[in-house]
Design a protein that fits this description.
Strand order of the largest sheet: 1-2-4-3
Oligomer: single chain
Helix content: 55-70%
Distance between the termini: 39 Å
Length: 323
């Protein structure tokens, strides 16, 4: 059994910085919401936003991951077909000190993708057919380490909270703008004075909250990359997987045709950091991990046999697995 990483000093330092960063960004989102609630509804507005936030968190679909998997038409991944993947998932879950090994699902899609839904006690990982058939076992282990890092850090709850704060901020801003339009005749004909700074914040708050939420998302992705490097002790596996995923999903082609579109403005509105930067950070991390601490999760690209097994369950995709 592999030991957990909680006692490693670099891991503890990473977790502390990760926690402080998340608290800062969530605090900014909460401050936007509280100020907007106060400007629109007065002191009672803060209480209303708290109640609304609790309701949104209660009905969050992430609490019921099986519902989401049904929407994707995903099926549980067969342990008979992919025993190595289950073994890797168990090792990574033990190192991450998870109470329960995540349930694996196969998503019927040719795109290279993997995602996590749920919370540490009831988490599922969806893996697309394209990723299963086009990545080596070593690269899949890097992707699984990334997704399990999201679970171990409770990123799903953090992002749900950030999304809830952003939605409430947008709702409060729209409510304030409607009230401003309704009272516009009083402003024009009765000479009522307005706080233009408050109006400017009312207009800008939705955009600012979205930017803060996207910054939080990018920070969680960087954090999951670093945690995955320590969990798998093989940062280059995830780096190679990221390169293949970006190449296969075609994000490099628009950059060649329309390079001016991919500047500072587009980087601000990305949910994930640029793959190039993620790969560079992972390559730097590979030099920090002691070779004596490395564990072998997968030393061979064992995906060559999968199209045969896969074709028995989905014969119509047999040629897609080879072409």
């Amino acid at each position: 059994m592999q030991r957990a990483l909680h006692d490693h000093p670099l891991w503890q330092q990473h977790r502390l910085l990760d926690l402080l960063q998340s608290i800062l960004l969530l605090g900014i989102l909460a401050a936007f919401l509280a100020l907007l609630g106060y400007l629109v509804w007065g002191p009672a507005g803060i209480l209303l936003t708290i109640i609304g936030g609790c309701l949104l968190l209660a009905i969050n679909p992430g609490k019921h991951p099986q519902w989401v998997m049904r929407a994707y038409r995903a099926q549980p991944l067969s342990e008979f077909e992919y025993p190595k993947i289950y073994q890797i998932c168990e090792i990574l879950s033990q190192r991450a000190a998870l109470e329960r090994v995540p349930t694996l699902y196969r998503v019927p899609s040719n795109k290279l993708n993997a995602f996590t839904i749920g919370h540490p006690k009831n988490a599922v990982i969806g893996i697309s057919d394209g990723l299963l058939c086009q990545l080596s076992m070593r690269e899949i282990s890097g992707v699984l380490a990334h997704e399990i890092s999201h679970i171990a850090h409770n990123d799903l709850w953090i992002m749900s909270l950030g999304d809830m704060l952003t939605r409430l901020t947008q709702l409060a801003a729209v409510s304030g703008q409607i009230l401003l339009l309704v009272n516009l005749p009083l402003v024009l004909f009765a000479g009522v004075s307005l706080n233009w700074w408050a109006i400017l914040f009312l207009i800008a708050a939705p955009t600012l909250s979205v930017l803060a939420l996207l910054a939080l998302s990018r920070a969680r992705e960087y954090s999951a990359d670093e945690s995955a490097a320590w969990l798998s002790t093989d940062p280059l596996a995830l780096a190679q997987a990221l390169k293949k995923i970006e190449y296969a999903n075609g994000s490099w082609w628009p950059q060649i045709l329309l390079p001016k579109r991919f500047g500072l403005s587009s980087s601000l509105f990305r949910t994930h950091p640029e793959t190039k930067k993620r790969v560079q950070r992972l390559e730097q991390l590979s030099q920090r991990i002691d070779s004596n601490e490395r564990i072998v999760l997968a030393d061979k690209p064992e995906y060559w046999f999968r199209p045969f097994v896969h074709s028995f369950n989905r014969p119509y995709d047999f040629w897609h697995d080879w072409l």
